[in-house]
Structures are given as C-alpha cells and as structure tokens.
Amino acid sequence: MKSNEAKMSRMEDILNLPVQDPPYSEFSAAHFNWFKVEGGRQGGDDIALIPFSRVDDFVKGESSNADCPASFRVESRRKRPEGSLSRPRVDGYLEYTLYWCSYGPEDYRDSEPHIGENSSIKPASGKGSRPGRRHMMRGCLCHFTVKRLYTRPLLALIIYNQRNHVDKTGAPCHGILDQESVGTRAMYAPRISEELRQKVMAMLHVGVSLDTIVQHHMEEVQRHGGPHIRDDFLARNDVRNMERLIRNACHELHSNVECSVKMWVQRHHKHVFYFEESSGSETFVLGLQSDWQLQQMLRYGHSGSIAFHTASGSKRLKDTLCSLLAFDSSHNAVPVAWIITSSSHGNNNTHKWMLSLVERLRGKDTRWRPHAIIVDDPSFQLSVIREAFQCRILLCLWHVRRGWLKSLLKHCHNFDAQREMFKHLGRILYSAGNVSSTAVAVEEFLQIYVDQSEFVEYFRSKWLPKLDLWFNCVGTLPVAGLEHYASIESYHLRLKSRVLSLLVEKSHRIDLLIHALTTQFHSFYWFDTYIVETGYFENLRDRFSLTNPWYQAEHISDMDVLLDEENLQFAKVVSQADSSMAYTLWNPGSEFGLCDCSWSMVGNMCKHTIKVAIYCRSRQIARPLLSAQVYMETLLSLLQNLPDDPLVLGHAISLVNRMKQDIKNMEDLSNCGLLQPVSSGTNSILAENIQPLPRIN
Ligand SMILES: [Zn+2]
Ligand SMILES: [Zn+2]
C-alpha cells in the first residue's frame, strides 16, 4: 500500500487529484495512491478519486482482502437531487454512502458459538439488533465513505476513515491476523459472495435440485483441495433459504402495476441502467442489465456484433420489449440487455437509454467497441446508434422473412405457390435500391397472385403501409448475414416459450414481464454458459441452446450438399439423421430460400438453408447477396453519371473510396466468421471500376 504522506491536500484541491482507474475487473485500496486531506471533518483521512462507474468494483475488491476477507454493507445512504444546491461545497455529494465491515461496529464476541458446534444460544433479536447477523459482530471499525460528487457526477471520492480491520483497542478482530479467529468462521468472509449466491439462485431457477447443487458444490470444493474461503462453507441451509426465497417471490409487489414496477426498480437498482416513469408526454422506459449481462456484452460485443430483437404489439405483449443480443463462440444469441418501453412510441426514444448503456460499458472499458450493430426495425434513429456505438450498422430482415413465410404457409396451401411467391417477394426487396421499380414490382406481384386472396389481403394491410420504410432502409444499409438470422430466431423462440407465453392476455402487467426476464429466463442463459465453460450438467442442457441452426449447419459436411451449378433453382441436402433421405431447398443461397424439411415448413430457419447459404458463398455461386448488390448498384449509378463539377466529383470519389473501405471491412468481418463474404464477382466489378477513379483529378 502506497500512500502519499509527503503531500497534504486541502479539501479545496481535491478535484486536482488524479482520477485512478486501475485496469482490473476488481481492485482494492492496495492498488491506489492515497492522499491525505488537511483539516476539516476528514482531516487525516485517506482519500482517492475514482470513476463513479467503478465503485462496485472497488467494494468487491476491498471485500476479498486475503488477510481479512470481509463484506462491506451499506450502513447509511443519502441522496440529493441534482440542482438542489445553489453553491455546493467542493466535496458536496449527490450520493453519500457509508460502507462498514460486516464484522462491526458492535462487538458480540463473548456470545459467539464456534464453528461446528451445535449451539443452542440463539442470537438476541429485537430493536437495534441485526437479526441473524448480530452473532458475528466482532467490533470491527473498518469503514469508508463514497461520495458521488455534486459538481462532478462521474467521479466518486473515496474517504477511507479506518483502513484496518481492528477493534477499538486497535487489535485485529477477524481474519488470519486475529489469533482468536483461527479455526472459526471469523477467519473467512462473513457471508457467501454475491457470485456464489447468483450461481445457486440460477441453478435453482432452471430446476437443478437442492441435493444436486449441494453435491456439485462439495465436489468442487474437493477438487480445489478442501475448504479455504467462506464460499466453500456453503451449507444445505443456505441453499434451502434461497429456494424458499424463490418459491415465495411474487412479481406483484403492489396491486397497482406502476407502483409495483417502481418498487422493483428500487430493490434492484443495480440491474437498472435507465428508468423513466410515464408521465404526461414522457413514455415509460426501463433498461435492464445484470452484472453478468454486462460482462457478456463486454466480452462478446467487443469487436463482435450486437443485434436488436424487437417484440411488440402481440395479444400478450402490449409494450415493446427490445432485447440486445451478443453472439457467443457457438453462435448462440445471448441477451445482454433488455429495454421495455410503453408501446406506440416504439423506438423513438432510443437516444434516452442508449447513451446510458454505452456509458456503462465504456465506464468498464474505455476501448470497448462493437464491430457492427444489427437493427431490425427501420424506424430506429440510426444517427443515435451510430453516434453512441461508433461503428457500422447492418439491417436484419429476419422479421420480414419470418412474417412473410409464416403467412404464406398459413394462407396458401400449395407448396409450389409458397416457394414461388416467397422467392418473388425476395426479388422485390432486392430491387429496393430503385423506388419506382419497386412500386412496379409490388403491383406486378399482387396481380400475378391475385387468386391467393388471403395472402394478398394480409400483404396489403400489414406490409404495404410500411414497405417504403423498409425499402428505404434496405437501400441505405448493408444487410446482415443469414447466420445471424438463425441465432436471432433461436432467441425469439426461447423468448416466446419461456417468457411471452407466461404473460396473460389483456392484463399487460409489466412487472410480470420484468420478473420472468430477470429470474428464470436470465438463469437459462447463465446456466448455458456455465455448462459450456465447465463441462458439468451437459445432460441438463435446455433444448433451445442445442437447436441453433447456425451452429448445427457448421456440422454438416460439404459432401452432403448436392447442387447443380447449371441449374440453381434448387439444392439438396442429405439428411443428417438418415443418409438415404435428402431435403430439397428452393432458391438456394438466398434469404428467401425455402426448404421442405419439417422445421422449415412451420416457418423456421433450418440448418439446411444456412448450410447451403454458406456453401454457395464459399464457392461464389448463386446471386451476390443483397448487401453486395446495394453497394454495386449505388456505385454503378455513380460511375454512369459522373458529375462535371470538380467539387461534386471530389465528393463522389471520396464516397467511392469509403465504399471500397466498407467492402474491405466486410471482407475482414467475414474472414473472422462474423459476416458473409461479399461475392468476389461483385468485388472484381467494383475493383475494375474504382481503379481509374483516383487518376481523374
Ligand atoms: Zn473488519
Ligand atoms: Zn431444412
């Protein structure tokens, strides 16, 4: 521990102190240079400035002190509204939190039973006692204060009032430096860690039995050579208490749903990154992200893709639920944040929560940056997303594809018509670069299939009004690869069966949605990751985590794809379960391909479609993908109409160069498996056309 004894700062100067942000996920007092202040209430105390976003990391690190494992509880907390002070003191607070070591401040050492003893002395209870905790208080005086500064809300001032875990005589009172603690629980942290608690809760939520959890825990402790930290002493009773907690948990904290949500937010403020109540013209917005989700977003989102999945307007879900998805190493979509907004305003309030979310991530890692954001709703405020994440934006056509296909399967009863209409609809979207030809194409489609009246009716009422918005978006944004659609769809199906199905029609209680998302549904994803990382509980894997077609497609051999390059009407894929059978895939390689396997025939994206898309791309057969086509059309129209004005020409050249860079970036993305490669045919056309350009000046 270094401290800067030589220099005493005056409180007025604290803002000149360096802001310390150690590059570890958790850190403690030992990682800081401490300063002392002169005079005043804090005279002689150690102080340090850290980013406010890292206070929790400090409290965690400080709790896992090797000599003195502890846990710091909030002893008191005060808040002041912004704008309430006209002349704030330099150390004036917006939030004031006093953390105290759980082994203090009271001292009940005389009545403490020793570990392993079946004591009949129950800790006293009543006014002023801390039920269930009193028996372990050993008079520890270690405590510190955290002030979120009024004038600098992004900074926290830590004032360490007593650094050592000692009692009032100045002697160590717990941990390995305390002779009396050796061999008792007081040698360890007073409670199990938040991580272990979450782990047990998640296992209980997904249905692992109490016995299995205890058994698994004991095996793990044995594996690392017997107990040596508090977590290792997890008792059957601890697990039973958590089980009871889950059983008694109720989503309805108040009969009034708004009060209920507000109470939930107060109790779970750590998992809320944005909250705005609905009032007057303001819509309701709630942004949810657990610590674990934050870690996953940092881990898989950096240099990876983040996709939006928007669900709204169903009978059960009146509000809009937007899930942000990251993709793990098995291409599974992992929800890394949820945003619930009152409906109709949909995505027009993106700017409100998005900056808070990105600030949260950058607070943990200033270099964090995704490679691409995949949006699924053309009404998104793209400039807000671009500014917040500072990366490229791709468009996801999964909702369109699924909507059209589901309706075709429902309203048309002839497979040939289904696949032909589906292909035709895809062609219309392909022509999105040119709005006049799009209108003609739509009209033509509706005339050709006029006898499919049910579908035509659906298409007219549901899609015609918003088709321009989609065309516009397809014309300006590159389109994400089919593989992502498969993962997003797996997420969608799991969300539907595990969360949306629990919602009650016509009741629309947001608190029920919040409860379902943050308890069992969150636990399923936590548990999947735990299985993958540890290899335990393979037999308990949820079927949804095993049915991601992108992942499955990678296990189909190229030999099983039968494709006639002279006739690209269809391809065949040998069944993986029965090699004497093959499935036929129409319009191979396209987003609008249709396979005749049972999974595809109920409107889902099957592994055969994905496999053939990957296959076609790697051999550069079939048409170039939509994204490449849009680039090519824009570029060719630019080249055919070269402007005379040198200023406009200069701008055009810089635009072309940017596009060239974009295509190169997409190739880089595809090389690391994150995006489909751009067809080399397209690239060579582009390259030929681009080369003479720089010489024009
Ligand atoms: Zn202590
Ligand atoms: Zn299939």
How does the SSE layout of this entry go?
Layout: E1 2-10, E2 33-38, E3 46-51, H1 55-63, E4 72-79, E5 93-101, E6 143-149, E7 155-162, H2 194-205, H3 210-223, H4 236-248, H5 257-267, E8 272-276, E9 285-288, H6 291-301, E10 305-311, E11 320-327, E12 333-341, H7 350-364, E13 372-375, H8 382-389, E14 392-395, H9 398-411, H10 415-430, H11 435-448, H12 453-476, H13 482-498, H14 510-534, H15 549-553, E15 561-564, E16 567-574, E17 582-586, E18 594-595, H16 607-618, H17 626-640, H18 646-671, H19 680-690
Parallel strand pairs: 1-2, 10-13, 13-14
Antiparallel strand pairs: 2-3, 3-7, 4-5, 5-6, 6-7, 8-9, 9-12, 10-11, 11-12, 15-16, 16-17, 17-18
Helix pairs in contact: 2-4, 2-14, 3-4, 7-8, 9-10, 9-12, 10-11, 17-18, 17-19, 18-19
The site of one zinc ion has 8 residues, from helix 16.
- Helical proportion, percent range: 25-40%
Bound molecules: zinc ion
The name CATH uses for the topology of the largest domain is Nucleotidyltransferase, domain 5
- N→C terminal distance: 63 Å
Keywords: Metal-binding, Zinc, Zinc-finger
Region (Disordered): 112-133
GO molecular function: zinc ion binding
Domain SWIM-type: 583-617
